[in-house]
Design goal:
The protein has 355 residues and is of the alpha+beta class. It folds into two domains: 12-182, Elastase, domain 1 (Roll); 212-349, Neutral Protease, domain 2, CATH 1.10.390. Helix content is 41%, strand content 9%. The protein is globular, with a radius of gyration of 19 Å. Mean pLDDT is 91; it is low at 1-5 and 49-59.
Length: 355
């Protein structure tokens, strides 16, 4: 596993700033107030993370013991911002009467299980890191995030977004930012930041597929399916199968994600478009996974995991760097068969060159 000279915890949210920017300008005062509050709050937390982040040596993961178990604790923020809040459920305790608490608990467990069973990884850091989460964060808070230490869920505003514990892929996405934090430590800007986001989408989707027992052909390949409230014209926040088609709504605008490098978006917002251009590596993974058929976490996911944890992925990696390493990983693990050819073809289809 890479050490990369230590890691820099980053503040990563599931709802992209460009969506919240659009909502903040909406004529509906209540809707715009919720979005503006979320934007301002996220910006303050993001700045705080930059100021207080301490460079520490990345953890070196040992093979997970067969009997590894998650250690989950769920807290209730009670619509405040002080974290973690009041403890309401711990590992092995009876379910709560609060559905958000139970969904968060189950989502943490599903993420732990996928990494353990598929990749022999013991929790987020590879060394049994306890998994903590806080629900009911702030009031009408339109986001969920990993802050470098724990998961945090808002309840949504009820008009555009529902409770952020409803999508297990969102929980898996955010916790995977923690895995990246402890491994490749991808810088959160430009193409390396888009790879950071894409890796989280990939494993978030795989966690959902693993939980449902789905094959690549059966999966919906949506990120955040169920988060959009009734009446919103859309199915999710992002689509790995068809980037740019997840939503088209008067309030949200149209999904801006490109599927190929031909439509790569040059922007200074959203940390250089990390939530937008992630559609390109997302689509490459989808193409490989569906070409190989079967369960996507087994071969396609294994290739991505090998790259993430293999020690060769630089913190400022570009798409072509990541693509080249996936081809190398496919060859090393599977030889010159369908896996290698599928990886090469997937990146070619999205316009990313490998060497």
């Amino acid at each position: 596993m890479t050490t990369n000279g230590g890691f820099r915890p980053v503040f990563c949210t599931i709802v992209p700033p460009h969506i919240l920017d659009r909502l903040a300008r909406h004529e509906d005062q209540a809707l715009s107030d919720s979005a503006l509050h979320t934007l301002q709050h996220d910006s303050a937390l993001r700045t705080r993370r930059r100021v207080t982040a301490v460079r520490t040596q990345a953890a070196v993961a040992a093979p997970a013991p067969a009997a590894s178990r998650p250690h989950r604790t769920i807290y209730d923020a009670r619509h405040g911002s002080d974290l973690p809040g009041t403890q309401v459920r711990e590992e092995g305790s009876e379910p709560s009467q609060d559905a958000s608490v139970n969904r968060a608990y189950a989502g943490l467990g599903a993420t732990f299980e996928l990494y353990l069973k598929a990749y022999e990884r013991d929790s987020i850091d590879g060394n049994g890191l306890p998994l903590n989460a806080s629900v009911h964060y702030e009031t009408n808070y339109d986001n969920a995030f990993w802050n470098g230490e724990q998961m945090v869920f808002g309840d949504g505003d009820g008009e555009v977004f529902t409770d952020f514990t409803t999508s297990v892929d969102v929980i898996g996405h955010e916790l995977t930012h923690g895995v990246t934090q402890y491994t490749a430590n991808l810088e959160y800007y430009g193409q390396s930041g888009a790879l950071n986001e894409s890796v989280s989408d990939v494993f978030g989707s795989l966690i959902k597929q693993y939980t449902l027992g789905q094959t690549a052909d059966q999966a919906d390949w949506l990120i955040g399916e169920g988060l959009l409230a009734p009446g919103v014209h859309g199915t999710a926040l992002r689509s790995m199968k068809a980037p740019g088609t997840a939503y088209d709504d008067p309030r949200l605008g149209k999904d801006p994600q490109p599927a190929t490098m031909a439509h790569y978006v040059q922007t200074n917002t959203d940390n250089g478009g990390v939530h937008i251009n992630s559609g390109i590596p997302n689509h490459a993974f989808y193409l490989l996974a569906t070409a190989l058929t079967g369960h996507a976490w087994e071969k396609a996911g294994q290739i991505w995991y090998d790259v993430l944890t293999g020690g060769e992925l630089k913190t400022d990696a570009q798409f072509a760097d990541f693509a080249t390493l996936t081809v190398k990983a496919a060859r090393k693990r599977y030889g010159t068969g369908d896996e290698l050819q599928g990886a090469q073809k997937a990146w070619e289809q999205v316009g990313v060159r490998t060497s």
